[in-house]
Write a structure and sequence with these properties.
single chain, four-stranded mixed beta sheet, 9 strands, alpha/beta, globular
Length: 324
Amino acid sequence: MLTHPDGLLPARPAAAPPPADPAAVCAAVLAVLLPYRRMLDAAGGDRPEAFPEQHRQLMGPVAAGRPIVFTLPGFPCKSPNPAKVLGPLPDEGERLALRFLDALCARIEAVHPPGARVIICSDGHVFSDLIHVPDRTVDAYGDALRALIRAEGLTRLDVFDLRSVYGPGLSYDALRALVDERHAPTLEALRAQTRSHEPTRRLYRGTTRFLFEDTATFAGTRSALQRDCRRRAYGVMRRSRAWGELVGRYHPGAVRLSIHPQPRGSAKFGIRLLAAPDVWLTPWHSCVLEHPDGRRELRHRAEAERLGRQVLRDGRPSHFVATG
């Protein structure tokens, strides 16, 4: 079971001279990341040399003596299904995940003194219409996420979202239309890749499953809902691709992290934010269950409620503590 930092953050180490061996520093950074890899394939997954693409991405800032910048699309909004989450705002799951990312940067700073930071590329507005979450709810989640980062003193984290790309003045529907028109792959191309490329097929299936599970109410039959979720899954994937392209344009030279499992050889490095029984589970699709030994894991609310009692933080539901 993975463990993640939760407690006092480590102090920043003293500055060090530029590395004499940048390749060794890149390997050391990868060694920090690998225990938290969200993986599809375990074979060889614990060796830095098995990730040449990430080594290449890291080499630029390391050799130049610059901070390493990671981009992480995610933290969109809470699932609309009340059986999975405690409510529409960030809770203990996000708090622990954000603390983990900040502390991970601190550990990287110990082997690369210029340091590291993570830009959270919050993508809720990119596909809120497809996941049936109102834009005002996404705004509230994003504002609370920024407030949580400030309150926790997580100085190595930043948030970037659709508002950061185009600025004020256009509606979110208009912004999504621009994203579709300018950056999304065609539906035909994505369907063809889903048929021929196993990682894309897994992502399609996982996205379809999440959309099905996130649907709290639906007037039609189960089979009609499945068809609707399959259609929306392609829309989510098209917009996700478009968002990835936009993130790359706005943050060139960044090392790309992903909350989805990634095979070795991918340009993206899948990272697990918190321990969970399901490799696809995230803090915004679940809530935290804390065990008597201090171990924390993500569970759907219905499961966590059955296993523990609810805990409040600042007057709002935060997480569950196991009672068994």
